[in-house]
């Protein structure tokens, strides 16, 4: 089961409509990049948080605009909203939360079709399935749907070795994050500018494939281009700029070290997992079972599970 999310507070502050629309788009793009099929059942939920509304007409307009943006994306992608959680109390004295609609998307997929995001081998083409936008800053839905379906088809056939949805930081951050996993570097194509590297591209997906297929796809498909090639050297190369992956990863991890160490300095104990399984039988061929797995389970919780009645299945 895949479970992804999408939200950009800066984009939502600029436009609650676009913030919610691209939150849904980003959550779906992440599912596709993992190997999910957008044409199958994708269910969407939202976490909604806005400032206290009061009598301010603009404040009332923010959640309305966000809901319209999310609905627009759901309608275009033919996905259902199954629920969510909302709050209109995001104000404390002079502080207010940004317009917040976090999209959560969930679906299931055959484990054989799952693709991880790290580069797999040097000498491969890195292909950008980009998004097109109109004057209203809304993406071209036909192109996005075509890209999602094409990517899934070639993940199933084994032509795509890694993939990642472009997020905050644009193409540059996405390429770096894909390089960290196996220490495989990349060199950016000469026709990709610095503006292209850092542009906001919610809905775009980067994939790794053979050089021949990458060139073929770029020549045949709309808004598709080879933007980089993987290399043996653990470095990011763009024109005259060359940065080692270790230096990039240190800078990338710096933010997280503020909250938690990225690497343990001591041997950690394996958690004590408690597994409980009970079965109720009704005849030789019918049974109902309850299985529970608790990390760091407390005895009180375990006893509650043990005492829960099991409903026997009918004949």
Distance between the termini: 31 Å
Which regions contain 5 or more consecutive residues with pLDDT less than 50? none
The topology string of helices and strands comes to: EHHEHEEEEEHEHEHEHEEEHEEH
Structural class: alpha+beta
Q: What is the helix content?
A: 25-40%
The gross shape turns out to be globular
Number of helical stretches of at least 4 residues: 9
Write the layout of secondary structure elements.
Layout: E1 2-6, H1 9-14, H2 16-34, E2 43-49, H3 57-77, E3 80-87, E4 91-92, E5 95-96, E6 100-107, E7 125-129, H4 141-156, E8 162-165, H5 170-180, E9 185-188, H6 194-198, E10 205-209, H7 211-220, E11 224-231, E12 235-238, E13 241-244, H8 245-257, E14 273-281, E15 287-295, H9 299-307
Parallel strand pairs: 2-3, 9-12
Antiparallel strand pairs: 1-6, 2-6, 4-5, 7-10, 7-11, 8-10, 9-11, 12-13, 14-15
Helix pairs in contact: 2-3, 5-8
Give a nutshell description of this structure:
The chain is of the alpha+beta class. It has helices at residues 9-14, 16-34, 57-77, 141-156, 170-180, 194-198, 211-220, 245-257, 299-307; strands at 2-6, 43-49, 80-87, 91-92, 95-96, 100-107, 125-129, 162-165, 185-188, 205-209, 224-231, 235-238, 241-244, 273-281, 287-295.
